[in-house]
Each structure stands twice: as structure tokens, then as C-alpha cells.
Amino acid sequence: MARPPLKNRPSLSAEPSESGGAEQSRIQGLVIVATPIGNAGDITLRALEVLKSVDAILCEDTRVSPKLLARHGIRRPLVAYHEHNAERMRPLILARLRRGESLALISDAGQPLVSDPGFKLVRALLAEDLPVTALPGPSAALTALVLSGLPTDRFFFAGFLPPKTAQRRRELGELAAIPGSLIFFEGASRLPAALADMAAVLGPRPAAVARELTKVFEEVRRAPLDALAAHYAAAGPPKGEITIVVGPPEAAAAPAGVAIDEALAEAMSRLSLRDAVDSVATALSLPRREVYARALQLSARPPDEAVGADET
């Protein structure tokens, strides 16, 4: 019997079981499945059912995913899909889905597409009206946020910051005025340097460093950014997976000239003129040109010299 058209057909359909309940009897299209971020027991019953039922599982690393799947007795074909082979694999995956196959997409840990491959694949499916759905589950970003003790009503996930100090500080300056908690992923080896730059650009905001979430040695260290930077500068990089949560900026009154001068003086004491201008302009929601002109006056440097040093 020929398959009905894929268009507008749900990815998951439920039919009554003999016991009167509902069970997943047919899966079609792509199912995005969240997997544990540490503790292998943190996987949903629905995720296990889907992973056992699909034709194949797209995974980020075929050396990592089999460990989780074996623990739960799941034996399905694995297909590597990651940033290095995505362009080549995407057309092949789309062809399988057009034929009506069912595929699951998982990452090494957590929710796929969140700092992981998959966005372009989902976009390609949507462009062809192929079925796609997602199963919710563990997320390091949200787990760290709710454990941080920082405001959860507004937050911004910034992912990984650039590895180099100048680029990292510039990006932090762009994020400084966001009126919500900031969430970052970071490699353990770069944590001390990243915290130092956060403290320099964002100031002593309350923050939390969460590591090894859901694992035996889970730890959440809460302190102002400058204190966290000092701790990890002395203690060195920790072990494990790291998530950083930084509190939102304090509400500020409308800036006056004195406030601008004070903000510039403080920023220029720890940043280059260019980065100080970017930070203050963003924090005070002022035109950059206005802040730069005032910075030149305060620095008492000839404009040509300042521009040559910081604006090129």
C-alpha cells in the first residue's frame, strides 16, 4: 500500500493500545530528542520509546551515544551528523525523510540545536514541509539558571564566548545592557580568563558557576563576578562541564554628565579606550559617538593618536 503524502502529517501519532491507553504506534519524520546532561537516568520514558522505534538515530559522536543507548537496551542504526559532515549528510538525510523514514536527532548531551548541530537541518525540513517535532528534556542552561539563585523571569542564552580576550570583551560589552540573567557555556580551561573578562566588562554582578550538573560531584559556586574570577585565578581551572549564569544589570537612573564621566573613568581604568567606550555606551544606552568624544576629553590624548591606537 502506498504511503499517504507527508505534508501536514504529524511526526508522531498515537493509537489506542489493547489496554485502553495510548502508545506511539507510528513515527514519521524527524524527532529531536533531548538526552541526559550527566546522569544517565535523566531521560524520559517517551524519549526511550521513540529511540527504540525510529529507523535510525542521528548523533553527534558515534563513540559517545552508544554508551547511553546500550544502558537502556536501544539498538538502532547510528548515523553521524555533526558540524564537520553536515553539508554532505544533510541531502542524504532529507532523501530518507522524503521516503517516509523516521529519524531521531540527539546530541552528546542535553537538548540538540542548543550550541549543537541541527539548526540548518530543521530549517531544511521546514522548507520542504517535512514533519519534525521535539521531545523536551534535560538542558544544562536551564538547570544552571534555576540553581543559580539569580532572576529567572528574563534570561538570555549567549552560548560560548570567543576564545580571545579582545573579542570576548567586545561581545560582553554588547551583552552588558540586556535586562535579564545571562547564561554562558565555557570550557574548563578557559574559565579563569573568561571570568576575569566578565568582571572587567560587567563589573561585580552576582553570578554562579555550575559544573558537573546532575553528576556525583555537582557544584554551584555563587559569588560576585570579581570574587569568582579571583577564586578560579588562584585555584586554577576546575574539572567538568561548565555553565556560567550572570545576574542582570542594576536599574540605573537617567545618566547625567557626571554619571558618564564616572562610568568612563572606571571603565578606562581597566579597558582600552575603545572597549571602555563600547561598554559605557551600551550600559548607559547612549550614542557611541557622544561617549567617544567625552572619553577623548577625559583621556587628554590628541584625537589622532587616540584614533590610531583604538579605532583602527
Low-confidence stretches: 1-25, 302-312
In this structure, how is the largest beta sheet organized?
Answer: 5 strands, parallel
CATH class of the largest domain: Alpha Beta
Shape verdict: elongated
User: What's the end-to-end separation, in Å?
Assistant: 67 Å
Helix content: 40-55%
Gyration radius, in Å:
24 Å
Strand composition percent: 15-25%
Tally of alpha and pi helices: 12
CATH architecture of the largest domain: 3-Layer(aba) Sandwich
Sequence-ordered SSE layout with sheet pairings:
Layout: E1 12-16, E2 22-27, E3 29-33, H1 45-53, E4 56-59, H2 65-71, E5 78-80, H3 86-98, E6 102-105, H4 119-127, E7 132-135, H5 140-148, E8 155-160, H6 165-175, E9 181-186, H7 191-202, E10 206-211, E11 219-224, H8 225-235, E12 242-246, H9 257-268, H10 273-284, H11 288-299, H12 303-310
Parallel strand pairs: 3-6, 3-7, 4-5, 4-6, 8-9
Antiparallel strand pairs: 1-2, 9-12, 10-11, 10-12
Helix pairs in contact: 6-7, 6-10, 7-8, 9-10, 9-11, 10-11
What is shown here, in short?
The protein is an alpha/beta fold. 40% of the residues lie in helices and 19% in strands.
Description:
With 312 residues, the chain is of the alpha/beta class. The protein has three domains: 22-138, Cobalt-precorrin-4 Transmethylase, domain 1 (3-Layer(aba) Sandwich); 141-246, Tetrapyrrole methylase, C-terminal domain (Methyltransferase, Cobalt-precorrin-4 Transmethylase, Domain 2, 2-Layer Sandwich); 257-310. Helices cover 40% and strands 19% of the residues. It is built from twelve helices and twelve strands. The protein has helices at 45-53, 65-71, 86-98, 119-127, 140-148, 165-175, 191-202, 225-235, 257-268, 273-284, 288-299, 303-310; strands at 12-16, 22-27, 29-33, 56-59, 78-80, 102-105, 132-135, 155-160, 181-186, 206-211, 219-224, 242-246. It has a five-stranded parallel sheet with strand order 5-4-6-3-7, with helices on both faces. Strands 8-9-12-10-11 form a five-stranded mixed sheet, with helices on both faces. Strand 10 and strand 11 form a beta hairpin. Helix 10 (273-284) packs across helix 11. It is elongated, with a radius of gyration of 24 Å. The model is unreliable at 1-25 and 302-312 (pLDDT under 50).
